[in-house]
Amino acid sequence: MGFPADAPSVLEFPLEMFVPGSDLSPLEKNLDQIIFGLTQWKSKIAERTSYAPPPITIEGKDYPAALDNLNLFFLRNLWSDGLPIVPATRERVDWLLTGANLPREKILGTMLPRGGIVTLEQIAVALAMAGGRPEYMPVLIATVAAFLDPAIKHEHLQTTTGNNFPVVIVNGAIAKQIRLNAGTGCCGPDPNHPAGASIGRALRFLQMNVGGAIPGQGTMAEYGANRFTNMVIAENEDALPAGWQSLSEERGFSRASNTVTLHFVASIIDMIPSTTTTEQAAIYTLNRWAAYIGGPFNMYFGFESRWEHGSPGVLLMGALTAQGFANTGFSKDQIRECLWEKSKLAPEKVKEYGYEKHVAELRLDPTMPLPVSKSPKSLLIAIAGGAPSGHAYFMPNQGYTSVTQEIKLPSSATWDDLLKQAAQDLGPLPAS
Amino acid sequence: MPAHSSYQVLSPITESHTQKTRLAPSIPDLAGKTIGAMRHTFRADETFPMIEQLLREKYSNLKFISNTDMPDMRPTNAAEEAELTRVLKDKGCDVLLAGNGA
């Protein structure tokens, strides 16, 4: 929240105290501190600072032992996610920064609740720990920029008891170039398309180490963030039916642009079946999808800003599902309108779920069915996943809005060199 | 056995952001002052009344504005901060207890 690190006006109490029915005596025991904070506290910090902690040296009898010791040290300091990390040596970080087109000291913003300053170098450190490559840096930098956009309100999503993770959908030629997956197995893990895992894990390291989202300390997420690697995938632009725009085109960018679209979700629902081989099958699928979407997800309605600028969530459908809809005559917007109508909550359901307060707060007509969003247009739809139309994904909202950020590449000569090196290291690009 | 291999790595954390800010003057004590409480989270309906009672036992003429009489705000931009400032001035708050458990 921007308070200095030494602010004693922020008092810590045992987490258990906030459990209903538990002992509140810590309040009485700390009353003098409460009074001090309200009357006498002054900040010791005088100036804005961007102090970088010194490098850390870890030793061992040999390199494997040093690596073990490094991983243990990082775990003890709460700088890891519980899985082995790659050492962020100066050499590795310098190598990763060749994928950025800005100075390493460039500041993108501060990440809350801890308020750590996010520099390009810090992004490269996180990507190094996550086992990333320099050609991933442009996507990660754009993702972090989107994450820090004030509209995202990351300070709430980092700290809430809600269990959320960012979904990042990449559009543009860069997706295939760096081996992001838009097809079968796109949500990972996938050794053929390793970029998504590293980029997503790097973002998670930033969220934890720079932003302070450590369970029970900075974040109160009751079940956690669900995914160590968040979700970083590509849209399958090759599979867009004729006349269908890509996600980034719908959000105002050209098909030639490289972009990331970031949205926070709460979970993943595998919607089965999602066949659209006939008109009747397509209608059945829309009915089922609407039933999934029309669940009592509080995060559709909580807080007026969500209603005004948010989305019910992210829907991913495979290539053949999309083509089946198109063959039947559905456009993306028609799918949205249909789902929006069919997913409305009847007034008796609104009452049954205890959501009358939301209807009142949003100043809606309580006699009318409650839609899951102010407008059908706000549902994010992207083509991704395995081609067969058996499954689709719906990820219910937990964010406040989505942000699309253009990806900036280094010079074309540098970019070509990075991609050539990737081809040498990883082999030819996968077929899909 | 003496160590002879090492990794030197860059730190995964940065120092927390700090910035000089002008604070309101301190008040010597809470007697006769108006304290506002804000946020409804995590047993605030129990913790804030308890704090109010404890403070009343120490200070005379204390005015305590319950969190139920204050907006549930978490300002994150200048406009929201300005709105909170207006509310605090309208209610005559000398100090604010903000946040409870989150």
Descriptors:
heterodimer; A: 432 residues; alpha+beta; 4-stranded mixed sheet; globular; B: 102 residues; alpha/beta; 2 helices; 4 strands; elongated
Explain how this protein is built:
The complex is a heterodimer of chains A (432) and B (102). By secondary structure, chain A is α+β, with helices and mostly antiparallel strands. Helix content of chain A is 36%, strand content 12%. In chain A, helix 4 packs across helix 5, helix 6 crosses helix 9 and helix 11 packs across helix 14. Chain B has a domain of 65 residues. In chain B, strands 3-2-4 form a three-stranded parallel beta sheet, with no helix packed on it. In chain B, strand 2, helix 1 and strand 3 form a beta-alpha-beta unit. Chain B is elongated, with a radius of gyration of 21 Å. Chains A and B meet through helix 2, strand 1, helix 3, strand 3 and helix 5 of A and strand 1 and helix 1 of B. Strand 1 of chain A pairs antiparallel with strand 1 of chain B.
In the predicted model, the low-confidence regions of chain B spanning at least 5 consecutive residues are: none
Q: List the total number of helices of chain B.
A: 2
What Rg of chain A is obtained from the alpha carbons, in whole angstroms? Answer: 23 Å
Shape of chain B: elongated
Order of helices and strands of chain A: HHEHHEEHHHEHHEHEEHHEHHHHEEEH
Q: Got a strand count of chain B?
A: 4
Helix content of chain A: 25-40%
On the 0 to 100 scale, the average pLDDT of chain A is 91
Query: What oligomeric state best describes the polypeptide chains here?
Result: heterodimer
Main beta-sheet annotation of chain B: 3 strands, parallel
Termini separation of chain A: 44 Å
Backbone structural class of chain A: alpha+beta
Could you outline the blueprint of secondary structure elements for this entry?
The complex is a heterodimer of chains A (432) and B (102).
Chain A: H1 25-29, H2 31-39, E1 56-60, H3 63-76, H4 90-97, E2 107-111, E3 116-119, H5 120-129, H6 137-148, H7 154-159, E4 165-171, H8 174-177, H9 195-210, E5 231-234, H10 247-250, E6 259-265, E7 269-271, H11 279-293, H12 304-309, E8 313-317, H13 319-328, H14 332-342, H15 347-352, H16 356-361, E9 380-383, E10 392-396, E11 403-406, H17 412-426
Parallel strand pairs in A: 4-5, 8-9
Antiparallel strand pairs in A: 2-3, 4-6, 6-11, 7-10, 8-10
Chain B: E1 5-9, E2 34-38, H1 44-58, E3 63-65, H2 78-91, E4 95-98
Parallel strand pairs in B: 2-3, 2-4
